[in-house]
């Protein structure tokens, strides 16, 4: 570590749950909610104006509770840093929803409703990796519970679901995704800034594919970045897969942990 003690450790979600509804404990939902708040603030969760207003209102309801005209002055929303660019028009819409639609919701319910909306958005769980496609156009690659995604600007141009992804590999600064699109074989190539960035992208893809695609961790094998097994990089995901995590969490029988907001 480059810094000196005391160290600050920050919690981050690595694999986003495909269905937040299946999260059993409130504490786990709260931790995911905190991650979503961070994603929203850093502009990683792209959404429409109406969805942004609803998400913002859920955050305000979770933080402040019901709207109270005596406690909440006209510009009370401006005190919240919810979005990287927060217009007055958006703040007025957030106030409207907070006043009229969310009254009576506890923090846990408001947080849960935010998760239900957020997980339906295309950039939910996407950690964007910048690169260029074969034409030199800047694109962002990501891996979600659904599969491999490609964005140009705010538009998703590719989604290859995990069952249709056959292989992920890299050579130097070029990352390849080999799979099926519209019942035809597809080979997508993307160029990263450095070989190290390309290798990191490949490892992220291999981890996400293993976590979301397989039913059991025992099915996971070591993968190679090259056709020749003893050349290139090798990597094997270690840990439970999504289905095992959901199954294990459904069997939790302890007293629910207390949530300190």
Automatic annotation (TrEMBL):
Origin superkingdom: Eukaryota
Can you list the GO cellular component terms from the UniProt entry?
cytoskeleton
- Per the UniProt entry, what are the Gene Ontology biological process annotations, in alphabetical order? actomyosin structure organization
Matching entries from Gene3D superfamilies are given as: 1.20.80.10, Pleckstrin-homology domain (PH domain)/Phosphotyrosine-binding domain (PTB)
Q: Which PROSITE patterns match?
A: FERM_3
Per the record, the gene is LOC103667621
Q: What lineage is on file?
A: Eukaryota, Metazoa, Chordata, Craniata, Vertebrata
For this protein, the record's SMART domains field holds: B41, FA, FERM_C
Record InterPro entries: Band_41_domain (IPR019749), FA (IPR014847), FERM/acyl-CoA-bd_prot_sf (IPR014352), FERM_2 (IPR035963), FERM_central (IPR019748), FERM_domain (IPR000299), FERM_PH-like_C (IPR018980), PH-like_dom_sf (IPR011993)
The cross-references to SUPFAM superfamilies, in alphabetical order and at most eight, read: PH domain-like, Second domain of FERM
Entry-linked PANTHER family? 4.1 G PROTEIN, FERM DOMAIN-CONTAINING PROTEIN 3
Question: Start and end of every FERM domain?
Answer: 1-216
Coiled-coil parts of chain: none
| Protein's recorded name | FERM domain-containing protein 3
């Amino acid at each position: 570590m480059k810094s000196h003690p005391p160290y600050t450790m920050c919690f981050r979600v690595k694999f986003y749950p495909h269905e937040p509804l299946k999260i059993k404990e409130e504490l786990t939902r709260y931790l995911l909610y905190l991650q979503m708040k961070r994603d929203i603030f850093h502009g990683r969760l792209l959404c429409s104006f109406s969805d942004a207003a609803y998400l913002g209102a859920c955050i305000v309801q979770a933080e402040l509770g019901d709207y109270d005209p005596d406690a909440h002055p006209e510009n009370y929303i401006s005190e919240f840093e919810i979005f990287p660019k927060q217009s007055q028009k958006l703040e007025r819409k957030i106030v409207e929803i907070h006043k009229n639609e969310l009254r009576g919701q506890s923090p846990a319910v408001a947080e849960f409703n935010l998760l239900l909306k957020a997980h339906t958005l295309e950039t939910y769980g996407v950690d964007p990796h910048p690169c260029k496609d074969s034409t030199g156009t800047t694109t962002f690659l990501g891996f979600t519970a659904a599969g491999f995604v490609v964005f140009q600007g705010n538009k998703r141009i590719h989604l290859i679901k995990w069952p249709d992804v056959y292989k992920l590999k890299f050579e130097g600064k070029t990352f390849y995704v080999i799979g099926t699109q519209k019942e035809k074989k597809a080979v997508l190539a993307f160029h990263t800034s450095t070989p190290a960035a390309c290798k990191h992208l490949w490892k992220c893809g291999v981890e996400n594919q293993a976590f979301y695609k397989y039913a059991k961790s025992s099915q996971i094998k070591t993968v190679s970045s090259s056709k020749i097994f003893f050349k290139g990089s090798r990597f094997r995901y270690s840990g439970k897969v999504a289905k095992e995590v959901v199954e294990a969490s459904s069997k939790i029988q302890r007293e629910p942990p207390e949530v300190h907001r």
